[in-house]
Amino acid sequence: MNTQVVTTGCLELDELLDGGIGYGSSVIIRGGPGSGKTIFGLHFIAAAVRANDPALIISFAEPEDKIRQYASGLNIDISKAAFLDLTPTPDRLADNEPYEIFIPDDIEKRPITRSIVESIEKKKPKRVFIDGFSLFRYLYSDLYQYRRQIVALMRFLRDHGATAIFASEMTEQSKDEELAFAADSVLTLTRTSSVHYLSIEKNRAGAYCRGHHAFVITDTGVRMLLDIDHFTKERLYQPELVATSIKPIDEALGGGLYQGSFTVITGNPCSGKSTFAFAVAASLRKKQQKVGLLLLDETEQRFRWRLQRTNEMSCAQFDETHYIFEQIDHFTTFEEVAFLVRQLVEVQRCSIIV
Q: What angle do CA 233, 263, 324 make, to 5 degrees?
């Protein structure tokens, strides 16, 4: 196991990888179009920028201005990262000769390799992100030569003290197993209509969490929605009875609710379930505990108005310090709900969840 690790730029992903990726390793992130490969790579480079480490982006797919604009739109700072643009320029396209990346002849592919080598030797980056690396495959008509060149490139990066992430396109017809074979770690991205998933296929740097781990792409980049079970640590449970201070309820429950317990309130429509639940939570709140409320079938504004109409809570008592509202819409996935619960408990320090 490599005890020296490098952060991926995503805290939750680091936890899945037992702290991060191995120093000097080569990591493959593969997936279909729109699966999030480039964003993970940008987070990786942004971590180097924050640490004032030299970083290099090599792109076969998108020109420099487009990638920098994309990162800026996500508030991901890659401003100090060097860039090697290997995409076809208008000048190359206007040339009578085809763009060299599509020519498998050895003589024609040398300028590409030489550009990569010269950039790494000149910039001396600690981190390298290679986007659109799948196109590198078309430089080689022979599979053996392609694999040999990949191994040579990864060894060259390692010998120069660079930790690298390669973004590779994955389709049903091609998963680029040659690239995965040579890599130290392999991350596979998939997606459904509502959520993306990341699975760790391989990690030579150390232990890793198996399974499909959900994430969403927001206006600030990737947000992992890890299962609550992943963070749950077994501890000695010491039951503590907490009185609600509502005498009839405490009498019916034998003194109150146990801390850490789950209580389900059922009933017909308009039977007072929400009002009853909030009355109990509000009473417990008087003991200086914070309340987190997940609203699935009505808005926060209407919920506040309804409780005020029933005199359950005055407007002044709805302070944001002790009551944290989270709106859940019909498109919210289970993974996102679980993430919100974790945030309410771990970040907001809520002791009561309704």
A: 75
Among candidate residues 226, 251, 279, the one where a domain is terminated: 226
Is residue 330 classed exposed, middle or buried when 0-12, 13-18 and 19+ CB atoms within 10 A define those classes? exposed
Q: Are residues 16 and 138 in the same domain?
A: yes
Question: Residue 6 has which token pair?
Answer: 């490098």
What does the pLDDT look like over 284-341, one tens digit per residue? 766 667 888 888 888 888 877 777 776 555 444 566 667 788 888 777 777 788 888 8
Dist CA 331 CA 312 (whole Å): 30
Per DSSP, the three-state class of 31 is strand
pLDDT one-digit tens code per residue, 75-91: 999 999 999 998 876 55
- Do 42 and 159 fall into the same domain? yes
Judge if 196 and 105 occupy the same domain: yes
Nearest 5°: the CA angle 154, 214, 168 is 25
Q: Are residues 92 and 156 in the same domain?
A: yes
* Domain housing 62: 5-226
Asked if 243 contacts 252 with a C-beta cutoff of 8 angstroms, the reply is: no
Of 88-102, 229-243, 337-351, the range with the highest mean pLDDT is 337-351
C-alpha radius of gyration, the chain, whole number: 26
Kindly give the interhelix angle for 64-73 and 37-50, rounded to the nearest 10 degrees: 80
Q: What is the pTM of this model?
A: 0.76
Residue 13 lies in a domain: yes
Do 190 and 291 lie in a common domain? no
- Asked if residue 105 and residue 47 are part of one domain, the reply reads yes
The predicted pLDDT at position 263 comes to 82
Separation of alpha carbons 219 and 50, rounded Å: 20
End-to-end CA distance of the chain: 44
Question: Within this chain, do residues 217 and 314 fall inside the same structural domain, yes or no?
Answer: no
Number of domains in the chain: 2
Which residue is listed with tokens 């060259």? 156
Name the DSSP letter for residue 264.
-
